[in-house]
Amino acid sequence: MTDSEYDVVVVGGGPAGLTAALYTTRLGLDTAVVDRGGGRAAMMQDTHNVIGVTEDVSGGEFLGTAAEQVQSYGADVHREFVGGIERVDGEDGDGLRFRLETDGATYGARRVVLATGFSDVTPDPPLPPTGRGLHYCLHCDAYMFADEPVYVMGTGDSAAYVAMIMLNFTDDVDLLTRGEDPEWSEDTDEMLRNHPVEVIREDIAAANRDDDGWLESFEFEDGAVREYRGGFPMYGSEYNTDLAEAVGCELTDDGTIDVDDHGRTSVDGVYAVGDVTPGHNQIPVAMGQGAKAGIAIHMDLRPFPRSVEGIDEMGPVSSGDVPALSRELLATAVAHEGHAGGPRTDAADDVETGDEQPADDD
Fold first, then answer.
1. Is the distance from CB of 332 to CB of 76 less than 8 angstroms?
2. What is the rounded distance in angstroms from the CA atom of residue 221 to the CA atom of residue 223?
3. Which of 73, 219, 336, 344 could bond to 25 as cystine, CB 3.0-4.6 Å?
4. Tell me, what's the pLDDT at 353?
5. 3-state class of 257 per DSSP?
C-alpha cells in the first residue's frame, strides 16, 4: 500500500463512517476516511440518544472526538469531496478494486464504504435556527418538547402522522401547510379529524425568537400570532447516492442504497452504512451499522486463517508471514496507549526503522 492506496476507503465522516473506519483500522486494515465536512450530525446543537454522551456535547464536538480516536489507531482522515468512483479490479482477487477521485487526489481501495447520508429538504424562510426551534429528528427531539406548544410543517401523510405522534408528548400541536393544499390521503384526513391537531393553512410572515435564539412564535399572513417552542418540517429527504449509482449499486424504492444486514451492496466490495441506507436515522443505529460493516470487511480481507484450498495453493503459513498488519499500522498499535501492558515505543521504533526481530524457522 502507498500513501494513496488503502485496504478500505470510507466516504463520509459521520457516525456510521467513522465507526466503520474504527473497526477496520483496529482489525488490521489500512483505512482512510475521506470526508467533505458538514452533514446531519455536524449540525446538532446537542447530542441526544447516544448513551455515554451527555446533552451538552455538540455534533461538531462529538464528530471531532470520533475522528481523533480513529486517527489515533492509525487511520488517515482526509477533508476532501469524492466526486467520482470507478472499478479497476486488480490482477488477483485481493488487488485494488476501486479508484476514488477528489479535486486533489486519487485513492485506491480494496473495499469501499459509502457513508454519504442524506440532506433534509429545508422549508422556505422565515424560520428559526436549526436546533433552536427547527428540528428534523422526531425520535431525537420529541422529548425536548414535552408539554410545550409544537408545530409540524408539511402537506403530506408524513407531516400529518408526525403531528399526531407529537400528541404523545404535548396537547398543543398545530399542523402548518403554509398556504399549500393538503396532499395527505383520505384515511389520514379522517385520522386527523379525530385527533386534537389544528391545521393552520396560512403561510408564515415572521418568526420571533427569545434572547437565547429559541423560537417564541410565528406571525402568520392573516395577522395571527401563535406561540411555539419548536417543531418539525416534513418535506422529505435527498439521499446522496451519486457514488453508489456510478459504481452500479442497486437502490430501494425509497431511494436508499439496498444493503444486507452487514452493509453489503449489490456490488461486490462496496458497502453502505448510515442514513443513506434503509432504517431509522439515528446515531446509535448508524454506529451499529458501521461496526457490522467493519467486522464483515475484516472477515472478508483477513489472510488468516488460511483455508485448506489456500494452503494447497500457497503452502502452510510460516512465521515470516505473520503478523498481517502493515508496518505502519503495527507501529501505531504497539505505541498506542491502549496496547496491552502500555505503549511500547521501543517496539514501535523497531517496526518503523525496519529492525525486525528474527523469526523462528519452520
1. no
2. 5
3. 73
4. 45
5. strand
Domain 5-120+237-301 has CATH 3.40.50.150: no
- Strand pairing of 173-176 and 197-200? parallel
Residue with cell 502493515: 326
The CA distance from 143 to 56, in Å, is 16
H helix intervals, 27-94: 59-72
Distance between CA atoms of residues 39 and 275, nearest Å: 10
Q: Name the residue type at position 54.
A: T
Say how far residue 50 (Cα) sits from the centre of its chain: 14
Distance between CA atoms of residues 350 and 346, nearest Å? 6
Q: Among residues 3, 15, 12, which one has the least CA distance to residue 62?
A: 15
Q: Give me the DSSP letters along 115-150.
A: ---EEEPPPPSS-PPBTTTB---HHHHGGGGTTS-E
Q: Which three cell numbers stand for residue 111?
A: 473495499
Residue 101: exposed, middle, or buried by beta-carbon count in 10 A (0-12, 13-18, 19+)? middle
Q: How many helical (H) and strand (E) elements, i.e. helices and strands, does the chain have?
A: 10, 16
Residue 320 per-residue DSSP state: G
Residue 104 in this model has a pLDDT that exceeds 50: yes
Q: Tell me which residue of 316, 289, 291 sits closest to 303, measured CA to CA.
A: 316
In whole numbers, what is the pLDDT of the chain averaged over residues? 91
Question: 131: Cβ–Cβ under 8 A, 6 or more apart, which residues?
Answer: 43, 44, 45, 46
Rounded mean pLDDT, 105-131: 94
In tens, the pLDDT along 181-221 reads 999 999 999 999 999 999 999 999 999 999 999 999 999 99
What's the fold here for domain 138-233? FAD/NAD(P)-binding domain (3.50.50)
Q: What confidence score (pLDDT) does residue 244 get? A: 98
Amino acid at 230: G
C-alpha cell at position 90: 486488480
Q: Decide if pLDDT at 2 tops 70.
A: no
pTM of the model: 0.91
Whole-number Å distance between alpha carbons of 354 and 362: 22
Alpha-carbon distance of 5 to 230, in angstroms, equals 47
Preceding omega of 126 cis (within 30 degrees of 0): yes
